[in-house]
Specification:
Elements lengths: L4 H14 L13 E6 L2 E7 L8 H9 L7 E6 L11 H7 L4 E6 L9 H8 L3 E4 L3 H7 L1 H9 L3 E8 L4 E4 L10 H12 L3 E5 H7 L16 E5 L10 H4 L6 E5 L44 H4 L15 H4 L8 H13 L3 E4 L5 H10 L4 E6 L1 H9 L5 E6 L8 E3 L12 E8 L2 E7 L3
Parallel strand pairs: 3-4, 4-5, 6-12, 6-13, 8-9, 8-12, 9-10, 10-11
Antiparallel strand pairs: 1-2, 1-3, 7-14, 13-16, 15-16
Helix pairs in contact: 3-4
Length: 434
């Protein structure tokens, strides 16, 4: 059967439905499903919170007997493998659905093409690729983790009329208006984790939670790149760590600072390997375990060294005292952990190592929100998938912190996908192809 405007209309509705639970379905994707009989929706569902039940089984249950002979519109290929629940393909067959329309084929090797094969073998008509571009966009986080072994990364920047994102020594500076800030709250609510550098964490003392009414429970995991564990125990992040998780990413080793070492990145100092350590586990100096390898690392090469952002090295930029031995580092770690912060050891300034490690924890989407230098780190590593650039009429003036990019120097490979206005603020969005 050829695809009709009728099919596209129902698939568009299923894609909109799938967005309801973005960031709230654990490692499973947020999928939308409609069961349509004689042009009328008989059942609809989105993947449940925490990832189960799946959308198809809920929509079929709602449709009941009306599912027989109906068409199912699903944003992602129905699963075909036995996990904690039976395959959704089997459920569609059991309910007697006559046709299944799919937006995106699942790249998971346990499913890819097999769900479609099961349905066709049962005599069900299957059409795939309906509104595929839109479907892939709604599933971007899941698809990126499956195909690239890392989270989907969004960099969000709010830039003043004179090209600044803040003011030195002023803490948080409001650049955008309330409408734009509300939109950012919605973005946080559909993201698994949010990341800032230690310079921003200390200078701004941000909370990084979702504060929009009705969405407070959807706050993402908060991550701080903090090589020397300088995050103050009195910070808002630490004080709320038992309410919303906080992960501090520390360097894998403590090194003695000297005149010769001044200004060098941790990865360039003796005895520091950018690929050692394992995120999510307490460091064991006697362990030979390593993080999952990707790209050239997997082929036996060495990752390109990325210098840490100047100003994000807390013991110099923030005036603190550098730890001189492992005992002091352990003391800092113990104090943070006692407050409920999770401390992991993985080179903070090698996102090509950090991101796959986050993916192994089930983090599919990451919002880089704090610090011009941290944003530049991810951009220069080529590991950003989406840029959200807010431009406001506010002028910062003297002592401004320059934005790492503006609308005139978006990196190559990004396509402009849309412009929206929120009050007086303009949002331009740029994306790479999945």
């Amino acid at each position: 059967m050829s695809i009709t405007p009728h099919d596209e209309r129902f698939m568009a509705a299923a894609i909109r439905l799938s967005r309801w639970h973005l960031g709230r379905t654990a490692t499973n994707p947020s999928v939308g499903c409609l069961i349509v009989k004689d042009g009328v929706i008989a059942g609809r569902a989105v993947t449940a919170l925490s990832g189960r039940p799946h959308a198809e089984t809920q929509a079929l249950a709602e449709a009941g007997a009306l599912a027989r002979g109906a068409t199912a519109y699903v944003t992602l290929e129905p699963c075909s493998h036995h996990g904690r629940t039976p395959p959704c393909s089997e459920a569609l067959i059991a309910y007697g659905v006559a046709r299944v329309v799919i937006s995106v084929t699942d790249p998971d090797p346990r499913v890819s093409g097999r769900g479609i094969g099961m349905l066709r073998e049962a005599g069900i008509e299957v059409d795939a690729g309906v509104l595929e571009a839109e479907g892939r966009q709604s599933l971007a986080a899941y698809l990126t983790r499956q195909t690239k072994n890392r989270p989907y990364v969004t960099v969000k920047l709010a830039v003043s009329a004179d090209g600044m994102i803040g003011r030195e020594g002023a803490g948080q500076v409001a650049i955008t208006g309330p409408e734009a800030r509300a939109q950012v709250q919605a973005l946080r609510a559909e993201t698994d984790a949010i990341l800032v550098g230690i310079g921003t964490a200390i200078a701004d003392d941000p909370l990084l939670t979702v504060r929009a009414p009705g969405l407070q429970s959807q706050s993402p995991i908060r991550i701080v790149l903090d090589p020397l564990l300088a995050l103050p125990l009195t910070s808002k992040l630490v004080e709320t760590a038992r309410e919303v998780p906080v992960i501090v990413v520390a360097s894998e080793e403590v090194w003695p600072l000297s005149a010769d070492a001044e200004g060098l990145p941790p990865s360039a100092l003796p005895g520091i390997s950018p690929t050692r350590g394992e995120i999510g586990k307490r460091r064991d100096p006697n362990s030979g375990s390593s993080l999952p390898a990707t790209g050239d690392i997997a082929r036996g090469g060495s990752p390109e060294l990325i210098s840490p952002p100047v100003g994000e090295m807390p013991c110099r930029a923030e005036g603190g005292n550098a730890p001189t031995d492992a005992t002091e580092m352990d003391s800092r770690r113990a104090a943070l952990e006692a407050a409920g912060v999770e401390v992991v050891h993985c080179n903070p300034y090698h996102p090509e190592v950090l991101l796959p490690a986050l993916a192994t924890r089930g983090i599919s989407s990451l919002l880089v929100e704090g610090g011009a230098k941290t944003a530049r780190l991810f951009l220069e590593a080529g590991l950003v998938d989406r840029i959200q650039l807010y431009q406001a009429p506010v002028v910062i003036g003297e002592s401004g912190i320059e934005s790492p990019l503006d609308a005139t120097d978006i990196p190559s490979g990004f396509a402009h996908t849309g412009t929206l206005m929120f009050g007086e603020d303009r949002l331009d969005e740029y994306e790479r192809g999945l």
